[in-house]
Amino acid sequence: MAHRNIRVLVVDDSALMRQMLRSVLDGDPGIEVIGTAPDPLSARQMIKDLDPDVVTLDVEMPKMDGIAFLEKIMTLRPMPVIMVSSLTSRGAETTLRALEIGAVDFVTKPGGTAGECLPRLQADLIPKVKAAAQARVAPAGQNRTHSTRKAMTSRRSAAELIAIGASTGGVAALQKVFETLPSNCPGIAVVQHMPAAFTRSFAARLDKTSALTVTEARHGEPILSGHAYVAPGGHHLKVIRSQKGLTCQVYDGDLVSGHQPSVDVLFQSVAEHAGPRSVGVILTGMGRDGAKGLLAMRKTGAVTLGQDQSGCVVYGMPRAAMEIGAVAAELSLEDIGKEVRSAIGGASCSVRGCCAAPVRGCESRMRGA
Q1: Is 289 among the residues known to form the active site?
Q2: What distance in Å separates the CA atoms of residue 233 and residue 250, rounded to the nearest whole number?
Q3: Is cis: bond before 261, omega within 30 of 0?
Q4: What pLDDT tens digit does each residue of the chain (369 aa) get?
Q5: Active-site entry in 58, 193, 278, 364
Q6: Is the CA virtual torsion 67, 83, 146, 228 positive or negative?
Q7: Residues 12, 289, 308, 335: which is the catalytic one?
Q8: Helices 333-345 and 170-179 sit at what angle, rounded to 10 degrees?
Q9: Whether the Cβ atoms of residue 161 and residue 279 lie closer than 8 Å to each other
Q10: Which residue in the list 85, 105, 167, 350 is annotated as catalytic?
Q11: Which residues make beta-bridge pairs with 33?
């Protein structure tokens, strides 16, 4: 049986942008643009008639803005939606709201000449459309069910640092995890794949919706309890131990695992400088970034957790980490929060297989795992 192309509907009020998106998408043999719409009212009927696999949706449009239309889609006819956003503060805020509502991902509108911007848009949009076509999309307000795998082990040292990595679907997932954490928890370092114009707004949103103080990480900044530090877009974030204690190291560098910031960079540094007194969490996301770094953390005796498949928008990064043995347990977002609270309080670790391997620095060993 021939492989079925991914059928995409493009919704944008700009004729030029509709043409550009169609050109980029139709250039991939596995994708077919089945229609374009200049506004949500036209798009609504086209969705009914054409039943697309993926919709690209402009953030700001006449007649009905993209957010209002997305809310209707996610309530009445949930489907994978990729937002097309401008690189502005307002565009960032609106796009983050869209991701909270249920949009799978976003791309930014390119600048410059067609010869410059089309290759960048193609490199960004094509893999996201393909991932979106496989994404798990739930109706707005509907909670997914999750399975957990637990067993008691012996007591271990309380963690002093939490490191979290996420990509596609990570905005909503991180918010849910942060909502479960207390204001006096150890410092948290976060890598969310996101452009530079968006990470500061994202940190501000996490700050408003959690008990923690959340900021974009700054180079040389000490990591304090009750604070979380989001890697700035376009820069790597490492955690290093100095005379001041654990501090943030923010720097520009090459892509690692295809990304900057990279989850692997963060996790590798945590393995080196915090080791068994750390917790590593890998959440929903496309690709393999973070798998090797999380394995390095686990080998030092760190608690390593992954989001379970049923809760992921895209089960890519957690699956890659699970396949190489980096994840001690796959849990729901709610249970990840519980396990992190257990680890930072020095309570009995309940992760099945967390310390199954005889790695240096781990104080407990699984029995009969």
Answers
A1: yes
A2: 10
A3: yes
A4: 457 899 999 999 999 999 999 999 999 999 999 999 999 999 999 999 999 999 999 988 877 888 999 999 999 999 999 999 987 778 899 999 999 999 999 999 887 666 678 888 999 999 999 999 999 997 765 544 444 433 323 334 589 999 999 999 999 999 999 999 999 999 999 999 999 989 999 999 999 999 999 999 999 999 999 999 999 999 999 999 988 899 999 999 999 999 999 999 999 999 999 999 999 999 999 999 999 999 999 999 999 999 999 999 999 999 999 999 999 999 999 999 999 999 887 443 444 444 433 333 333 322 232
A5: 193
A6: negative
A7: 289
A8: 50
A9: yes
A10: 167
A11: 8
- DSSP helix/strand/coil, 306: strand
Q: Determine contact, residues 297/276, Cβ cutoff 8 Å.
A: no
Structure tokens at 217: 């990480």
Residue 167 is a catalytic residue: yes
Rounded Cα distance, 286 and 303, in Å: 23
- pTM of this prediction? 0.87
Tokens at residue 213, please?
């103080």
Q: Could you tell me if 83 and 98 are in contact, meaning their C-beta atoms sit under 8 angstroms apart?
A: yes
Residue 154 appears among annotated catalytic residues? no
